[in-house]
Batch of 3 targets.
Target 1
Amino acid sequence: MTVSSFHPPSRVLMGPGPSDIHSRVLQALGRPVIGHLDPEFIMMMDEIKGLLHYAFQTTNQMTLPISAPGSAGMECAFVNLVEPGDNVIVCVNGVFGGRMVENVERCGATAIKVVDDWGTPIDLNKLEDALKANPGVKAVAFVHAETSTGVQSDAAAISALAQKFDALTIMDAVTSLAGTPVLVDEWKIDACYSGTQKCLSCVPGLSPVTFSERALETIRGRNHKVQSWFLDLNLIMGYWSSEGATRSYHHTAPVNTLYALHESLVMLKEEGLENAWKRHAKNHLALKAGLEALGLTLLVEEGYRLPQLNAVKIPGGVDEALVRRRMLADFGIEIGAGLGALAGKVWRIGLMGQSSSPRHVTLVLSALEGTLTDMGANTGNGGAAQAAQKVLLA
Ligand SMILES: *Cc1c(COP(=O)(O)O)cnc(C)c1O
């Protein structure tokens, strides 16, 4: 068998990530490699830090992209802040909260779980009860935007509760960053991590993180070495430090991926965060109008819905996997399946970053209506794309 170059098919990415990427970002990826200690590269790294300050709405000095995907950002937050013997409250209302529990336990600490149903936000009363019942917890960890269910929790209120009980906050903003407000300083979040392939519409493989001064004090005061050499912030900071002259080799930075992140952050700055949030909100409302025309409903109650991740209940009698396969084969559109407890119960339609546009909304609705009609399913009143356009053109 001869193996030749790989050419990916043309796709429209409307699942839970990765999202579609602008040609400007892909072009940045193809620029020549330079040394990762080259003074010109270091200047670009400083610009990335500045742009991440803007994206996270923070002045935290320790703000940088980890050279690995969102899961590594998650691990970075836990391994640096959590030590053997600590107690950490973890709010679990979907897949990613469950992964946080794993991280806490692998740090040799105890995870105290505050569990809510999949599809509902984190219950503040339950969290307060857990804080009262467990004096001295080191941190409260939670997922701001649960990609597995499409739920957004009230980060400001969760963080205020954690402050009241003198606990650090660890927030997963992988899906929220650049899609809905993430206000790290205003909410007093101590550790926050994200990913590049969701609302930032960059290639997968980097995890922007930010740590508060209080988090850094905690890290400096550790009794045990951070068990991960690669993710030890004390060492990473030697490379990403603010004084360019003293930068030392830690690992070889993914040079071209960082060009791409730089470009996607420049694009975010050009659009403006608030405009990006508004765009995500409007396209979500248009999608919702179209889905309703087809008699379809969203899993999550109004008020907690993520505009960038829409969990749609599967109507009775429909082969949900066949719908996804046909959307991909007939229209080149990728939508997501349900995960874990929601497997087979929902589709997850992502409107993230560049995939949050009137074009994407119109396309996915029209393709979904066509597919369901062809499969003999009930499509309500029909006219999904037109219903969405009423919202889009209003
Ligand atoms: C996607 C995602 C992650 C993991 O990011 P990867 O880049 O896939 O490692 C973590 N948390 C949430 C909420 C996510 O949506």
Target 2
Amino acid sequence: MNRGITRLTGILSIFIQILTCSRLVCYFTNWSQYRAGTAKYLPENVDPYLCTHLIYAFAIVNYANNIAGSEWNDVALYSTFNALKNRNPHLITLLSVRDQDSKQFSIMLSNWTNRQTFIKSSIEFLRKYNFDGLDLDWENKGTSETHLEEKMKFTLLCKELLESFLAEGQSNKYVRLILTATVSAQKEVIERSYNIPEISKYLDFISVKTFDFHTFKHGFARHHSPLYSGIQDEEDINSNTDSALKYWRFQGAPPEKLLMGFATYGRSFILTSSQSGVGAPANILASPGPYTQEMGLWSYFEICLFLNGGAVQWIEDQKVPFSFKGSDWVGFDNLRSFEIKIKYLQEHGFGCAFVWALDLDDFSGYFCGQGSYPLVNLLKKWLILGKICIN
Ligand SMILES: *[C@@H]1O[C@H](CO)[C@@H](O)[C@H](O)[C@H]1NC(C)=O
Ligand SMILES: CC(=O)N[C@H]1CO[C@H](CO)[C@@H](O)[C@@H]1O
């Protein structure tokens, strides 16, 4: 009998785990349309069954404090992007607004009138183009005199947005618009930017950018998205995924609202000595990848080209891989590190995963020989289809 009950609760907790972790939020970027050849990525390339949520990056705040597109053809892209819902009616789409010109975002935040203008324009814009919600990608960039003020105003923005979304949802026959934020994973930025317990009340989920922890500025080859801190991190024990998620939780964010960020790209540097391990001197960004054309950032499919059967090294304490060839050094994620991160987030009861970005995975399957979207498909298999929970 006892054993029966244990078994039953066992099954129930497996079931609950599946239910609490059923989001896979994937970013689409408006600039992947300009890539050459097989790397060109348009909304038509998005598999509507891969993710539960798609986020379109990015919209901006314009000089009239309205939300606005940032690309000449955004409106056409919105329409093909949101038409993916005709194929999968369960798919949820959001538009992400970024504080690209931080001055304008700050002006919008600064008083009630401006915030109301932004909120009203957002509701109209989202409905007009058939999005299901808004994502705020913001961190406090102001001066030390304005930090406290802006932090408070950002909380107000979240609160007022949710109130307006609720009111609109009740007055229309629509389902209420979703409100989310994509936030920093760096302790000093978190401290100056977010009133965590307050914003957590208003947001449906919070995507923590657990990547880009280390850049070339630090002067050493370090992994940009480690799961744990490493022996090189004595002075920097917070710059890792584990610490960032725990910090958000400790400060009062409900774990089930927290999403771990998964990067489908690596950060690459040029080594400046004969050393090549983690922590080797490296002070400049590596040349752009042949397709993505950004210094120091290589997509997963470009990393496959780079590796070309070459050796992948494993950083044991941080649970992520790196590789080097000549003076090029790259820290990235692969199927193995994704699996370990997935297990971690399930064991800790975090609210699932978001991916930056769809176009950086080997979406065509052309480069890595692992099928299409190998990394995102792994997340889907383990998180959404619940493979890990049942095993
Ligand atoms: C809000 O800020 C704008 C500047 O963006 C200013 O023109 C306006 O007077 C302010 N409104 C209030 C009520 O303070
Ligand atoms: C090509 C490109 O980068 N297009 C736009 C995408 O959105 C950002 C806003 O974050 C714009 O600055 C870009 O111009």
Target 3
Amino acid sequence: MSDVLNLVRADLAGFGGYSSARTAKLSGDVWLNANEAAWANPGDEGGSCRRYPEPQPAALVTALAELYGAQASQVLVGRGSDEAIDLLVRSLCEPGRDGVLFTPPVFGMYAVSARLQGAKAIEVPLLDTDDGLVPDIEAVIAAAIAGKAKLVFLCSPSNPGGKSVPLADVVRVATALAGRALVVVDEAYGEFADEPSAVSLMGQYANIAVLRTLSKAHGLAAARIGTLIADAGLIAVLRRVQAPYPVPTPCSALALAGLSAQARALTAQRVVQIRDERVRLQDALAQLAVVSRVYPSDANFVLARFHDAEAAFQALLAAGIVVRDQRAAPQLGDALRITLGTPEQNDRVIATLCALKATA
Ligand SMILES: *Cc1c(COP(=O)(O)O)cnc(C)c1O
């Protein structure tokens, strides 16, 4: 039994989860064990949805394992990485006792899942440095130990901060917290970064897990396909906690089509283009008098501070451009996060903010 299994809630030891009609490994050519309809719905051309899906579609698990450089046994497919975050918190944290550590300003789902589970939220603010918003690694380690964190979320590249966490820092946290906490590296934007995936560390450090998603670089946000890569024993536990049929057949079919060699090649080209656009938007924003700071970004968005963020937000809105208002986030009272769009869309952002300068 691997060490990380000791991090699972004690009361879930031996929990078998729901035993679905698809759990038992039976074979036959007439399936009358799940009360499914005998005929397909006329709206279901091809009839692919008449029967319940495989809980973890084998072809998709294989494709995702290959995509992310993991073993199939280390992969859990869920309804977006959001579901994986929730499964981790529910499976590892005892309400009222265990903690979930994250580094604000950061993606909101860690806090939401912790709150819903009644787990303590342990917040270690990012440091605003010349290199951008970065985690305070020593403070993360100290707070995790003091607050009995079972989970430490490192968002890399971070949303909305934009910076990758160097693998050396991930190793420092994982080493210091071995036996105490699982270090979850959320790589939702990993495709846009230079830093290698923390999956490469998992052979050496069993308490590292990685979140990936098809929602961002792969352009399949509505398919809701997220992947957790973790210790195989832990994945087996989480599969028992997960809902019975979490991956709808049309979604896994779409994901498989989106991971064909041809689709992946096109996605890779688009990532290159977004990275070029990132430099272009950052350079343009840095020239504007209305902008007070442009943060470095390893992701598909740019975070910037404005002398008058409200005026900038409203000017963009009036031009039909909706960006993310970050002003309610800690440390970001004057900041907007702009997702990189097509070159034409980015041109519109730049032109709108240029015009704002003229009237300011
Ligand atoms: C967008 C995002 C996700 C959510 O991904 P889904 O797979 O669509 O649930 C996870 N983490 C971060 C940091 C994100 O920005």
